[in-house]
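Thread amino acids onto this structure.
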């Protein structure tokens, strides 16, 4: 039995061996990139198709908190303002502030669904997700699995059906202030002055913050980037609650990966270990190793296995410190 495909003109489902669409009569094209379902996508060189010169020309002019999309052969980028969720598709009839309407670029003829994909943005990290589109979403010519988010990097090529977009992210997106709440998960007194005691700051808080610094520095090192100093902008304790509000600069990646990968690992740690600070349980070690590799694949998918193993060893102390700490960064 032949699989079905969708006509790129009228979007009706047709037989995979058809030469003409039985609904609109349009020729059936099969020039799509091959389908893959990998969870990690390696970047491609930024200099392809003249992107490097275009980036240098336009990115310095970008408004704050925005990125650029170069669509097909158009040298003039589409500037998109950051929001937590940005939808890509055909929204000519119902545009919103968080939607990117691709209709004028021939989106319908190229197989772009009305709500095709979305870009999730949080703490300076951009991720792409397919929305069960009829003709698929590709990142650097690898098809995305539905329901999975894939981190975007500067120069990545996105295909919505057959419509090609190249995303340009200014380097500064990884170097700004990040604020987050930290919960103390042990039973403690909740009076303001008793939370921020000198002993607590020395034995708990400083170690927690240093682990964040170490994790952020490995993010940069694994991409061959210069290490940036991380500064504490503010620390505030909540009245009557074991909660701290912390602001740092240049640590947004570390905070993002803690929420995405390390908070779930904390639950595994709590279930697999019975003695505080003990991490020798084989089941936990397996989960720890898997998490380290997932983080590094997010940070730099182009790392080979040897390099990834090396950075995983460097990252392990910081990750163990974060998942075993009595402090936990809360979800957004």
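Threaded sequence (332 positions):
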């Amino acid at each position: 039995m032949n699989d079905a495909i969708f006509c790129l003109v009228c979007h009706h489902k047709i037989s995979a061996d058809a030469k003409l669409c039985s609904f609109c009569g349009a020729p059936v094209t099969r020039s799509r990139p091959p389908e893959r379902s990998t969870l990690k996508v390696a970047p491609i060189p930024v200099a392809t198709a003249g992107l490097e010169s275009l980036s240098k020309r336009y990115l310095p002019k970008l408004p704050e908190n925005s990125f650029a999309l170069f669509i097909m052969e158009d040298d003039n980028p589409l500037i998109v303002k950051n929001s937590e969720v940005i939808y890509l598709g055909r929204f000519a009839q119902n545009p919103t502030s968080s939607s990117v309407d691709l209709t004028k670029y021939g989106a319908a003829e190229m197989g772009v669904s009305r709500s095709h994909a979305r870009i999730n943005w949080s703490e300076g990290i951009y991720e792409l997700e397919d929305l069960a589109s009829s003709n698929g979403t590709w990142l650097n010519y690898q098809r995305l699995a539905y329901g999975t988010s894939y981190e975007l990097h500067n120069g990545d090529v996105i295909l919505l059906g057959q419509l090609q977009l190249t995303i340009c992210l200014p380097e500064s997106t990884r170097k700004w202030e990040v604020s987050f709440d930290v919960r103390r998960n042990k039973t403690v007194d909740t009076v303001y002055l008793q939370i921020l005691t000198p002993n607590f700051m020395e034995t708990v808080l400083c170690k927690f913050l240093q682990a964040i610094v170490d994790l952020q520095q490995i993010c940069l090192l694994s991409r061959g980037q210069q290490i940036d100093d991380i500064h504490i902008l503010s620390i505030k304790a909540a009245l009557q609650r074991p909660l701290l509000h912390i602001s740092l600069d240049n640590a947004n990646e570390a905070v993002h990966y803690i929420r995405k990968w390390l908070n779930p690992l904390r639950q595994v740690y709590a279930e697999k270990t019975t003695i505080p600070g003990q991490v020798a349980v084989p089941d936990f070690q397996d989960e720890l190793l898997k998490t380290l590799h997932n983080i590094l694949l997010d940070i730099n998918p182009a790392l080979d296995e040897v390099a990834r193993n090396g950075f995983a060893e460097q990252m392990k102390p910081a990750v163990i410190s974060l998942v075993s700490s009595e402090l936990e960064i809360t979800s957004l």
